[in-house]
Specification:
Chain B: It is found in: Cell membrane. The complex is a heterodimer. By secondary structure, chain A is α+β, with helices and mostly antiparallel strands. Helices cover 25% and strands 35% of the residues of chain A. Chain A is built from 9 helices and 20 strands. The two termini of chain A are 38 Å apart. Chain B is mainly alpha-helical. Helices cover 65% and strands 1% of the residues of chain B. Chain B has a two-stranded antiparallel ribbon with strand order 1-2. The longest helix of chain B has 32 residues. Classes of the chains: A alpha+beta, B mainly alpha.
């Protein structure tokens, strides 16, 4: 129903400012993912939206209504906690219906709601169990069901999958995506896992050090990262960065560094001519391909150090001068360790960043 | 299953410990069925003619028949038993209610002087009850009184009877108050350690689910610290039930507790050992029942499954 709007949100602990003026607009029924490394302020932001942390400065709006001063119970939202936070002395049914019972809803309504929600998350057979008798994945479902039962317009998720093992995490991620289609509500999801962010989000907000680095759709952020941080954070394996200088040779702009020279496509080159010469060249591992006869200016010579076989793909760790470069290749490609091979760069995959500020050029 | 062979000295030590703890109770039990002549006569064997006469003497005011050997029922065990129950239960309940709230505040709220208060609760516990006796006796008799000339004082006198001003001394409330003050520090200290273990995210989840501060406390925190409450209840009840020193000074004829009654059996002419033993056995029953009941609440792993460990 409402849009959520954060206006110049600031959080201080004593004299230490940990969030520096967060401005964020989340559209109706949008699935927003706050992502960033540990300590970047994403969880604090979420907890401020929930009302569990006080707002030091700025305001939070649900629709047109400022809610920064309200108690969590008056904000009408549902939250899934990182550690599940199930009430251990209540069985699953009572856990799910806790909020409804606090609202003193009629018994039949509560019963029907619990049944409905338990079906959504697949817990119908476990309603009489205590949380202590459930597995990790089931506990996670109970936490999810408890949030769903509330009929809130806003759902908050605080790293809900981070306590699950890898296989279960993938499965729950898929279930979350399915649930997201059934329940069209505002959802804010905090994670440090960029895969979760990419797969679930309508809008990704990348945070670091208490600032928003960039926000937008997953595709937008992946294709056009605003700075070196975002570029390095999203994508797996992460983007390769090579220190280089811009050189103008015979009307073509090159990014050149130790042992390589890459031609920059003409459409990008024009804008770059005005900028500083010291840049960082960014290439994603998937934008490199094995091409022994790539013409000069379009390829890199890399010495292969390690080959990690991961099934259909192999990840090669290579060296170019002083820099480490990762390459993602089809496993069939014949590679011998210690060899120096030539790899072609996809022209669209060339990213350039200002070496000092890190902003994309 | 293979058990490790223990040193014989280990069993000897165990036997000694068991004898030391069970011995006195056994002695009391056996002697409570003997006549005073047999007890004092030094024939301490197990061969004697058991009699329930001591119990009849002890319970003479609650028995439905009049025991043959008694001319006059001097021992008011029934009344003292009721007094003991009232005082022990009331002080336990009050101590727990105040204690769990105080402990919760000390653990979860941030306020000035929190650490000092937390520490000083334990320091108060270090004061021996005997030190309290004289000042409390003075205060209860002279300071905390309502003048009988005032309306409230007059009303209380008219309703409950008695002479002089209405004072705390000699009332149930006076004794209960001292016991609460005496046990509160330890109870707060015990419960603090239990409340710390309640995951904070549980309270946050409850707040998001729509619970106010009191609902969080009563619906989430309290059920989870049940084992702590039970332990504290056993502790408080036992102390209040057995306490002698303060009760002997602060009670009067109508409010004396069972421990005081037992000592009343001693005079300069005669010590009625048999009756003392019998009353002692009777005294031991309620705490045992209370402990059995309360200890069933002590289950480990109350918070299992709440949060991912």
């Amino acid at each position: 129903m409402p849009q959520i709007r954060l206006q110049n949100l600031i959080k201080r602990y004593g004299h230490v400012e940990v969030l520096h003026g967060i401005d964020l607009n989340m559209a109706e029924n949008e699935f927003t993912v706050l992502v960033g490394p540990s300590g970047c302020g994403k969880s604090t932001t979420l907890r401020m939206i929930a009302g569990l942390e006080t707002v030091s400065d700025g305001e939070i709006f649900f629709g047109d209504q400022p809610v920064g001063h309200l108690e969590p119970k008056d904000r009408g939202l549902a939250m899934v906690f990182q550690d599940y936070a199930l009430y251990p002395h209540m069985d699953v049914a009572h856990n799910i219906s806790f909020a409804l019972r606090l609202q003193k809803r009629p018994k039949e309504e509560i019963k029907a709601k619990v049944k409905e929600v338990a079906e959504i998350v697949g817990l119908t057979d476990y309603l009489q169990r205590k949380p202590g008798a459930l597995s990790g994945g089931q506990r996670q479902r109970v936490a999810m069901a408890r949030a769903l039962a509330k009929d809130s317009d806003i759902f908050l998720f605080d790293e809900p999958l981070s306590n699950l093992d890898a296989k279960l995490r993938g499965q729950m991620r898929a279930e979350l995506a399915i649930m997201r289609h059934r329940v069209q509500k505002n959802m804010i999801y905090v994670t440090h896992d960029q895969i979760e962010a990419m797969t679930l989000a309508d809008r990704i907000v990348v945070m670091s050090d208490g600032y928003i680095q960039q926000q937008g759709s997953p595709e937008e952020l992946f294709k056009h990262p605003a700075n070196k941080f975002v570029a390095g954070f999203l994508g797996s394996p992460p983007m390769n960065f090579l220190d280089s200088e811009l050189i103008d040779l015979e009307d073509t702009l090159y990014a050149a560094g130790e042992g390589f020279r890459i031609a920059i496509p003409a459409d990008k080159a024009h804008a770059l001519r005005q900028s500083d010469n010291a840049v960082t060249l960014g290439i994603r591992p998937s934008d490199l391909s094995y091409a022994p006869d790539a013409p000069p200016g379009l390829g890199l010579d890399l010495e292969v150090i390690v080959s990690e076989y991961v099934g259909a793909q192999s990840v090669l760790l290579c060296v170019c001068g002083q820099a480490n470069v990762t390459v993602e290749l089809k496993s069939e490609t014949p590679i011998a360790l210690g060899e120096t091979l030539r790899f072609a760069v996809r022209p669209e995959g060339i990213h350039l960043f200002d070496r000092k500020t890190g902003t994309a050029l | 299953m293979q058990y490790e062979r223990q040193n014989p000295a280990f069993y000897a030590l165990l036997a000694a410990l068991i004898f030391m703890s069970v011995g006195p109770i056994l002695l009391m039990f056996v002697n409570s069925f003997k006549l005073d002549v047999d007890i004092i006569g030094g024939r301490t064997g197990l061969l004697f003619l058991p009699t329930i006469r001591n119990y009849e003497t002890a319970l003479c005011d609650v028995l439905w028949y009049e025991p043959d050997h008694l001319d006059f029922c001097s021992l008011k065990f029934g009344g003292a038993f009721i007094n003991s129950l009232i005082i022990a239960l009331a002080s336990t309940v009050i101590t727990l209610v105040i204690g769990c709230m105080a402990a919760y505040a000390l653990v979860r709220f941030r306020f000035m002087g929190r650490d000092t208060i937390s520490l000083s609760t334990l320091m108060v516990r270090m004061v021996p009850p005997a030190v309290l006796l004289v000042p409390v006796f003075g205060l209860w008799n002279n300071e905390f009184c309502i003048d009988k000339a005032t309306m409230v004082g007059g009303w209380i006198r008219d309703t409950f009877g008695g002479r002089g001003d209405v004072c705390l001394a000699g009332t149930h409330s006076g004794i209960i108050l001292v016991y609460v003050a005496m046990n509160l520090p330890f109870v707060i200290w015990i419960l603090q350690s239990f409340i710390v273990q309640v995951p904070r995210s549980l309270e946050e989840a409850a707040r998001v689910d729509g619970a106010g501060p009191f609902q969080v406390f009563f619906k989430i925190v309290l059920p989870l610290i049940k084992p702590g409450l039970a332990a504290a209840a056993i502790f408080t009840f036992r102390i209040a039930w057995n306490e002698y020193l303060l009760a002997s000074a602060l009670s009067d004829r109508n409010t004396k507790t069972v421990p005081i009654l037992i000592v009343n059996n001693m005079s300069e002419f005669n010590v009625e050992w048999g009756v003392i033993m019998a009353t002692g056995m009777l005294l031991a029953i309620p705490p045992i029942i209370f402990t059995l009941f309360a200890s069933r609440q002590i289950i480990t792993g109350m918070t299992a499954g709440a949060v991912k460990g």
